[in-house]
Amino acid sequence: xxxxxxxxxxxxxxxxxxPLIIGMEKGWFKKENISINMxxxxxxxxxxxxxxxxxxxxxxxxxxxxxxxRANDESVIGFSRFLHTNGGVMYVKEKGIxxxxxxxxxxxxxxxxxxxGGLAIVKTMxxxxxxVCKLEDFIPVNNxxxxxxxxxEDKADAATLTFxxxxxxxxxxxxxxxxxxxxxxxxIPDFCQLIFITSPKILRNRKSAIARFLKxxxxxxxxxxxxxxxxxxxxxxxxxxxxxDPLSNKITDATLPCFTYDFSMAYxxxxxxxxxxxxxxxxxxxxxxxxxxxxxxxx
Length: 299
Description:
- It holds the Pfam family NMT1.
- Pathway: Cofactor biosynthesis; thiamine diphosphate biosynthesis.
- The protein is α/β, with parallel strands linked by helices.
- The chain has two domains: 3-85 and 192-291, Periplasmic binding protein-like II (D-Maltodextrin-Binding Protein, domain 2, 3-Layer(aba) Sandwich); 87-185, D-Maltodextrin-Binding Protein, domain 2 (3-Layer(aba) Sandwich).
- The chain has helices spanning 18-25, 28-31, 47-53, 63-71, 116-128, 147-152, 164-173, 200-205, 207-226, 228-239, 246-255, 267-280; strands at 3-8, 34-39, 58-61, 77-84, 87-92, 107-109, 139-141, 158-163, 178-182, 193-198.
- A five-stranded mixed β-sheet has the order 2-1-3-10-4, sandwiched between helices. A five-stranded mixed β-sheet has the order 7-6-8-5-9, with helices on both faces.
- Strand 6 (107-109), helix 5 (116-128) and strand 7 (139-141) form a beta-alpha-beta unit.
């Protein structure tokens, strides 16, 4: 009897989810007696709520949100990563930005503005660059997740958080002369990664199914590296993507090398991330990472 696993996607269906698509199209999940239901959340950050409601078993998110959720006393645990890209603050070169200190006084685009999230990132970068600033020294802009459009329409001078395999490519495709300051280069723990999360109860009760799920994800990532052209064809066919669309091709090509063989994450990494989040005012307490991350199934 097949076990159904509903998985909440991070944002909308896109090349980040190719391992899931390959696992389904190749019949590998079925071979492991698993059926997959991919769910696009109505809101970008509502995955944990859907897990609590029983609408999802697993969700894709970023380490940043896992730590924030756990610090807010949500019953959540991460158990595997599968994608690691680069990214940070994308900026328009013609705005006189060449280093993080140049962001002072600039218009910063990010979802949730004027909330603390995007401002904490640029403030940390400026301070790492030797600058001195306050949160009020930046102008928050909220154009949703349409980072490139905010820059193209001159609503903002820089945007955060952007991924190298998506927004940077999209902006350049649209004719913008952009670059980016990488998180890890300017004092911020690198959370440009995608991970799987669930509730401790689901992980405990469905450990065998989740282990088989990860077995297929690992098999699919092997396939991506060994047969990238076929992997891309499978994705295009599944999503009805126009093979001739230049932007889609660029984004997919840039995403294929981002899938990682190493599903584990160091507890020291999560310590660094939560310390930065507390210092930035995003969370108010530090928790032992072993309470919200496990490498038990990632080896």
